[in-house]
Amino acid sequence: MSFITRKHLSRRTLLRGVGVSLGLPLLDSMVPAQTPLSKTAATSKSRLSCIYVPHGATMDKWTPAADGKGFEFTEILSPLEKFRDRVSIVSNLAHPAAGGVGSDAGADHARSAAVFLSGVHPEQGSIHVGTTIDQIAAQRIGQDTPLPSIELSIEEVALSCGSGYACAYSNTISWKTPTTPLPMENNPQVVFEKLFGDGSNNADRLARKQQSRSLLDSVMDQVASLQRELPASDRTRLGEYLDDVREIERRIQKAENQIPADLKLPEAPVGVPESFDEHFKIMYDLQVLAFRAEITRVATLMYARDTSGAVYPQSGIRDGFHVASHHSNNRANMDKFALINKYHVEMLAYFLDKLKSTPDGDGNLLDHSMVLYGSSMSNGNQHDHDPLPVVLAGGASGQLNGGRHMTYAPHTPMSNLLLSMLDKLGIQADKHGDSTGKLEI
């Protein structure tokens, strides 16, 4: 079998085995030989990751005191300090479309997730919001990858939503069209198979699992053949990538083994880790692998659904997430909620660290990614949507500069940032949601 010709190794090269379709990371061998480009590192395209956290934040412990480059990270944001040159804090943005009036005023939780990336007020009694920026990006930068986008979550689907709004609004942040919500997957095993399984034969996959074999076993002959033709730098990069794939597979299998064989819980999919800490990390690791192999360039992640009762022991707080957000503006309760906010940011820092430590072309994945992290709510106790807690990270292949606290005019539409993000990805649009213009980011 020959992978490399005098032309070059194709970026779309796949290693195929029994129930396996394995993409490769970006290698220097993918640069056409005997061209000026062959003297440079392989080039990379930007990736987009959008991360949603409900319930807002303790804003006085979130927002830096100083504007511009000289700001200090607050206690909540302190886990991001080591990524200062690739992180900007964005202040004074608002999502008025998530609000309501009259009898509709109390349904903020039912609307917030749907508005996060769309900037459009959801229609009550039907399903209609707006195409989200991740899907606009997927239409432009995701059409030459195996998957245009992936949609991930930590929690399961909510079946009861109330307030007269369809559950679709609170179960996803990704909308392919104004009437087409995309389901978010919370089971790492399902995501892993989606990324690396070929989907052709479920019986083969089941047999592999029962025999405790790795997904990689059936492609190792191809790997060995490819390794013989690669230069040393590419052999190292490929080896590290395969090690990461195998490690994530091992962690997923460990999560599966924690569930007794005779325990039948169809509402708890096999493969979901017992701890939130491991669940966050493995979903982020899967996203990094997907970006690394360019299985997709676009991803979304929901930390939780609005009104989530999740308890995060690692934060040191035993109150449920939604209950903690209703702090009655009591200082002690607000400080407790801030610890949950900080824990969530620590998980973001884990993701940024993984991106930064992953080589990609002439830099690393953080250099070539645009990461949006934030909420559609500000003060969870008041259910308001202004000002929002927002972080923008990554280099977007030279289009973003970090190290700034970007403070805009009060009540600036969050949609202005979304529109500007599309612009930095090379996607021209005059308007998005309720935008009024583009921002300098």
What does this structure look like?
This protein has 441 residues and is an alpha/beta fold. It folds into two domains: 1-43 and 207-271, no CATH class; 47-186 and 279-424, Alkaline Phosphatase, subunit A (3-Layer(aba) Sandwich). The protein has eleven helices and 13 strands. A seven-stranded mixed sheet has the order 5-8-3-11-12-4-13, with helices on both faces. Strands 1-2 form a two-stranded antiparallel ribbon. It has a two-stranded antiparallel ribbon with strand order 6-7. A hairpin with a 2-residue loop joins β6 and β7. α4 packs parallel to α8, α7 (232-257) runs antiparallel to α8 and α8 (276-292) packs parallel to α10. The longest helix has 26 residues, at 232-257. Mean pLDDT is 88; it is low at 1-7, 33-40 and 262-269.
